[in-house]
Amino acid sequence: MTAQVFDPTEFRKALGTFATGVTIITTRTADGAPVGLTANSFNSVSLSPPLVLWSLANSSASLEIFRKAEHWAVHVLATDQEELSARFARRGIDKFAGLDVDTGQGGVPLLRGCAARFECRTAFQYEGGDHLIFVGEVLAFDRAESAPLVFHGGRYAHATRRDAPDVKPRSAHLAGSFSEDFLGYLLGRSHFRFFAQLRAALDAQHLSDMEFYVLSTLTLKPLLTASELAEGMAGVLDDRRKQALDSLVTAGLAATRTGDGIAYELTAHGREVALGLISRAKALESQVLERLGPDAPILKSLLNRLLGEIDPTAAALWQAPEAERRRSAG
Ligand SMILES: Cc1cc2nc3c(=O)[nH]c(=O)nc-3n(C[C@H](O)[C@H](O)[C@H](O)COP(=O)(O)O)c2cc1C
């Protein structure tokens, strides 16, 4: 066989167009030490008998251990296990440090929180160029209802369901129209429908959406200067910010402090009202996201990206307290 010489980068890129899940394969050494690595070469082979395969680079530090191992386990990673994937793709570290593991057949360490786990016994090994191919007989498996982590084009990705072909337009009048598929319409209508469900709680406090927005922003820091507020709300409430703040002060929910310049803080009553409304909003969020199921983190991640693209300054105000909290916690 003559080896075809390809441009390695192009060849990798072409192979990378094939989207895969991500797995971690684990086993143990003869003296019981846990071993594992990230692999996306996993695939199903046969239903009856139940067989799966994966391939291991000849350069892997664990080659000899897997070659000799009778048992190993495949863990199909869930979408929130990207960090675990990165950890098991690194060399020269204790990959299992601090992890809670179960023990499977042959004493193989089993990781938790995965989309599925297959406990296997080596059935065949084949030389495959610069990799060794392992075919395993599945002895046991379990699975959870979690969305899978995906690898595509050299990067981690989300898997999301496509709309079923029979999804009906939300309104017969909108079918095929400009608005039906227009981002502004989808965002705007989602926003209004979401806040409509908070309406009664806001009405009970005589607050408009704008006032709630300013009130909840004031919970971010004990004292927000007028310029911090202006910066945080730039492009969103430019004109109405001052008006909303004045109403909050008049209603006794916020107070002004003068020093170097004007700063705003919540009164004790304002904080109580704000936290009550925020917890209502969070409960509403959980209900809505629960209906989206595994697509919920994908929606959030896409909206965050969208916000980063169309409003790069938005992150600053919201991230600062988070960073401060982490610093003081650490
Ligand atoms: C998403 C992803 C998929 C990978 N798939 C494989 C694979 O199928 N086979 C393999 O040998 N290495 C694969 N690797 C690389 C190994 O995880 C990496 O080389 C690891 O350091 C090997 O560990 P070891 O040398 O301790 O055995 C993959 C890495 C990533 C991030």
Q: What's the topology here?
A:
Elements: H1 8-16, E1 20-21, E2 23-28, E3 34-39, E4 43-46, E5 51-57, H2 63-68, E6 71-76, H3 82-88, E7 102-103, E8 109-110, E9 116-128, E10 131-143, E11 149-152, E12 155-158, H4 183-196, H5 199-204, H6 209-218, E13 224-225, H7 226-232, H8 240-250, E14 254-258, E15 262-266, H9 268-292, H10 296-310, H11 314-329
Antiparallel strand pairs: 1-11, 2-3, 2-6, 4-5, 5-10, 6-9, 7-8, 9-10, 11-12, 13-15, 14-15
Helix pairs in contact: 6-8, 7-11
The structure holds flavin mononucleotide.
Flavin mononucleotide (FMN) is lined by residues 22, 37-41, 54-57, 60-62, 89-91, 151.
Q: Mind explaining what this structure looks like?
A:
- There is one protein chain.
- Helix content is 38%, strand content 25%.
- It is elongated and about 80 Å long.
- It folds into two domains: 8-158, Pnp Oxidase, Chain A; 177-329, Arc Repressor Mutant, subunit A, CATH 1.10.10.10.
- The chain has eleven helices and 15 strands.
- The chain is an alpha+beta fold and 330 residues long.
- The relative contact order is 0.09.
- A seven-stranded antiparallel β-sheet has the order 3-2-6-9-10-5-4. A three-stranded antiparallel β-sheet has the order 1-11-12, with no helix packed on it. The protein has a three-stranded antiparallel β-sheet with strand order 13-15-14.
- Helix 6 (209-218) packs across helix 8 and helix 7 (226-232) crosses helix 11 (314-329).
- Flavin mononucleotide binds next to strand 3 and strand 5.
